[in-house]
Amino acid sequence: MNSKLTVTKSNLLIDASYRLNVQAQKLVLACLSKIDSRPDSEPKKEIKLTAIEFSELMGIDIKNAHRELYKAADALFKSSILLRNEHEETELYWIQKKVKKLRGEGAVTLVWSDEVLRYICQLKSHFTSYKLRNIASLQSGHSIRLYELLMRFNATNSRVIALDDFRSALGLEEKYPQFKELNKFVIKFAVEELNQRSDLVITYETLKKGRTVTALAFTFKQNKQLKMDL
């Protein structure tokens, strides 16, 4: 894999609410790594990705890469993103139309929606960048989303996030209603996987009002042993 490939997203998109399976997220991120997000670059609306590229970028067995690529493309279609602030909620879609499967070439072509382009192209400020290789071996979509939420605060190596905002970002508003379950199946699992498979070493603690957990406080640093690029 090209170790210099970088994913860049607007911070609004980093903190947005959406839920994609791990392969669909990896499809999005692999395609984002093909975009020059700098302000003076032309927006790249159409992206082609081959199964061989998908395999090499994400460490997927080439025998399964075609199937995983096409499944990811199907999952991405009609998947929406919710952007929220104090005054409004906006829903938009990742892609403009169904991903084209080029079966003879073992590839897909996706066309970003016009609404998403503003959050991935010509970014001047308030964005987050990280190396694609640092999430390539992750097996959980929750782990990828937690990685992004933390990298948004890479300058301080810490982030406190309200539990409701954490649930929203991972698309878990209606799943794991008890914190004990959320902690076991999502938070602990994601932190452990990131500590093992990414360039970050993470610890966290819960913040409470009375007996109720209201926020999560994460601290993190680069895992120098892995010698990955930030």
Integer tally of domains: 2
| Largest sheet, spatial ordering of strands | 2-6-5
CATH-defined topology of the largest domain? Arc Repressor Mutant, subunit A
User: How many individual helices?
Assistant: 8
Mean pLDDT across all amino acids: 93
The Rg value, from CA coordinates, equals 17 Å
Shape by Cα distribution: globular
CATH superfamily of the largest domain: Winged helix-like DNA-binding domain superfamily/Winged helix DNA-binding domain
How would you describe what is shown here?
This protein is 34% helix and 26% strand. It is globular. The protein has 2 domains: 6-117, Orthogonal Bundle (Arc Repressor Mutant, subunit A), CATH 1.10.10.10; 137-226, Winged helix-like DNA-binding domain superfamily/Winged helix DNA-binding domain (Arc Repressor Mutant, subunit A, Orthogonal Bundle). The longest helix is centred in the C-terminal third of the chain and has 19 residues, at 179-197. It has 230 residues and is of the alpha+beta class. α6 packs across α8. It has a 3-stranded antiparallel beta sheet. A hairpin with a 4-residue loop joins β5 (100-102) and β6 (107-111). Pfam families: Rep3_C (PF21205), Rep3_N (PF01051). Residues 6-151 form the Initiator Rep protein WH1 domain. Belongs to the initiator RepB protein family.
Keyphrases for this structure?
Initiator_Rep_WH1; 26% strand; Arc Repressor Mutant, subunit A; Initiator RepB protein; 230 residues; alpha+beta; 3-stranded antiparallel beta sheet; 8 helices; DNA-directed DNA polymerase activity; 2 domains
